[in-house]
Every structure is written in C-alpha cells, then in structure tokens.
Write a structure and sequence with these properties.
Residues 1-21 have low confidence and may be disordered. An 8-stranded antiparallel β-barrel has the order 1-2-7-5-6-4-3-8. It is 14% helix and 27% strand. It is globular, with a radius of gyration of 21 Å. The protein is built from 4 helices and 8 strands. The N and C termini lie far apart (50 Å). By secondary structure, it is an alpha+beta fold.
Length: 214
C-alpha cells in the first residue's frame, strides 16, 4: 500500500461494490486411519511411506495436512547426514518446506516412550528444534538410530524427549540411498548442518495418499 495517495471523490451514483473473492476453503480433514499409505514422487522416482496413525496420531495428522493441501509439492531433500561409525550406510536424509508462508502451526511432541515406536532403518521422523516446535521438516533413516528415541533416564531435557517417529518407508529405499549418496556441498549450511547439505537438492514433485486397497 502506498501511503499519502489522494482519496478519490465518491461517484454521484454509487454502484454496488463487488465482493472480494473468498479464498478456496481447505479440504475437510479425512478421518485418520490406523495406517495411511503415501507416495512421494521425486525426480529420482517414488518413495512409498506407511504412516502410523494409531500410535502417532498427532504427527501423522500433521504430515497428512501438508499432503492434502499439496504443500509438500515442490519441496526438496536438502540434507544428507553421514555418520562415520557403524555399518554403512549410517545416517539420514532430510526434507521439508522451507517457505515460512506455507507452514502450519507447530505440533505437540509425541515421544517414542508414548508411541512405542523406534528410530529403525527406514523410519520417518519429524525434525524439530525444541520439543513442540516440529513443523514440516522430516527425516528418512538409512540405519537404526535408536539414540534419537526418547531417553527418560537422560539429564538433558532434549534427550529425554527424543524425536517423533510416525511411520516407515515401504518401497523406494534404494532411492533414499541415492539421495544420501548425492554430492555434498563443503560450504553450505550452518553449525552442525555445515558439510551435510546436498550440493544439488533432490526435488519432490508430489506427495499423495494411496487409495485404500492399492
């Protein structure tokens, strides 16, 4: 809006003003099933996910909110964390929505002590800062990383909370490995992310529910 613009005189015979078009309503939420299949189509191929709505309903519903409003279309896998120890491949890849204008509100944290799930190879887990700040970024694990599970005995509140697992890869782990194997930039990223950012992020074209029975 430009400030200081002169007001125009009212017309002698005012016409009925046109109502501003209303934004299209968001689709009504679909009742959450115990498990929900989702296909994530990337430039490398399709990764199939099974989300656990029974044990992690808050996190699953949040992910599906982004799916159903098509806000995951066009996001990228931008990070590949390589751990030097243990059996290889060891680490994870991370993707998410990096446009703050398209984010929904943060969700409540669902620790693994509550859900009974664990960070096993192929798991999908929410990225976050402090517990209760998760938005739309998520990780796919190449290996068992149970150190990300909640640890009630830890003195660090962050380790006590752990991260929220809410499903696993059911097809396309070879594509997850290709993303993990992609070249890393030596300069991109800040803090612990430096040296973990993909030089050429892998684009996600669409993310859609798979109809029941498919």
């Amino acid at each position: 809006m430009v400030s200081g613009a002169p007001a125009q005189a009212a017309p002698a015979r005012a016409a009925h003003p046109r109502a501003a078009p209303k934004p299209a309503p968001e689709p009504a939420p679909i009742p959450l099933a115990d498990t929900v299949r989702v296909d994530m189509v990337t430039t490398l191929g399709t990764i199939g996910l099974e989300l656990d709505g029974k044990h992690a309903p808050i996190t699953t519903a949040n992910f599906l909110h982004y799916v159903d409003t098509k806000r995951f279309d066009g996001i990228t896998f931008y990070r590949a964390m390589h751990l030097a120890w243990g059996d290889q491949p060891n680490g994870l890849v991370q993707a998410g929505l990096r446009d703050p204008r398209r984010l929904f509100a943060p969700i409540a944290h669902e620790p693994t002590t509550q859900t009974g799930l664990s960070h096993k190879a192929g798991s999908i887990s929410m990225a976050r800062n402090a517990p209760g700040t998760a938005l739309a970024d998520f990780s796919l694990l190449l290996s068992d990383m149970t150190g990300l599970d909640a640890d009630p005995k830890a003195t660090d509140p962050d380790l006590q909370a752990g991260y929220a697992v809410f499903g696993h890869v059911v097809s396309g782990m070879d594509l997850v490995r290709k993303i993990w194997d992609a070249p890393i930039s030596p300069t991109l990223g800040e803090g612990i992310m430096r040296g973990q950012m993909l030089a050429d992020p892998v684009k996600v074209l669409t993310v859609r529910r798979v109809p029941t029975g498919s």
